[in-house]
Amino acid sequence: MSAWQDAIAACHRAGEGFAVVTLLQTKGSTPRNEGTKMVVTADDSMDTIGGGGLEHLVMRRARELLNQGVPAQSVEHFPLAGKANQCCGGSVSVLIEAFPAPTLRVAIFGAGHVGKAVVKILADCDVRIDWIDTRTEQFPNDLPANTQSHVLSEPETFLEDFPSGAMALILTHDHALDYRLLLKLLDETDARHIGLIGSSTKSARFLDRLKRAGIPDAEHVRWQCPAGLPEVKGKMPMEVAVSIVGELLSLPSADLTKKPGVSWKAVQAALGKT
Prior knowledge:
Elements: H1 3-14, E1 18-27, E2 37-40, E3 45-46, H2 52-67, E4 72-79, E5 91-99, E6 104-109, H3 113-122, E7 127-133, E8 147-151, E9 167-170, H4 175-188, E10 193-196, H5 200-212, E11 223-224, H6 237-250, H7 264-272
Helix pairs in contact: 3-6
């Protein structure tokens, strides 16, 4: 893969927003040819469309689009002498495609059958996943691009830097660990939803223990056990996972308003200037 392709993969793994810049059309003397690409993030850039004033202007415009926080596209035209103060004398038309960081972030505790099925579904969603387990061998060799694994002897330590406003799924094989995670999530984080795998009996027992631990009643709206949509009755791992992910994606989230893509007229207008 080229540097820009590697950069996109790295951004996906890190859950970082990025913009892809493509030279759509070149005319006259230009530093790079049509089809050249680079990747721009909030603090860095990978690969190059030729450097100099042009690249500086394009990077600034790409970051403006990223700062909007929604997917966006823009076609820009740059006469190199007039706008970029470059002596090449040519001109370029550039497509900038902004892909902000996912608005939904989920921490999944447990890499058992249900955890694996949940990650398999979320791999194709606009979600950043942190996947935590004590067992290295439980994680597949090839993780989805939007997933980062964390092997921790004490999974609770992940909550010390829990992402603000993220969701959590507790899907472990250890009921004692489940309780410790739930207690810490409610007491020390602002997780806006916590799904806990288990039965109604487990839910009642945990609720009683949490009340005795001093967790206020108002905090109990943040967690649900059994996790998932009650309409989905299946008990196979993938059926349970579909239920859990369906519930996650149905919850209110940050503004996911999508800006329309660049119009064909905008492309024609930009290319017509060259």
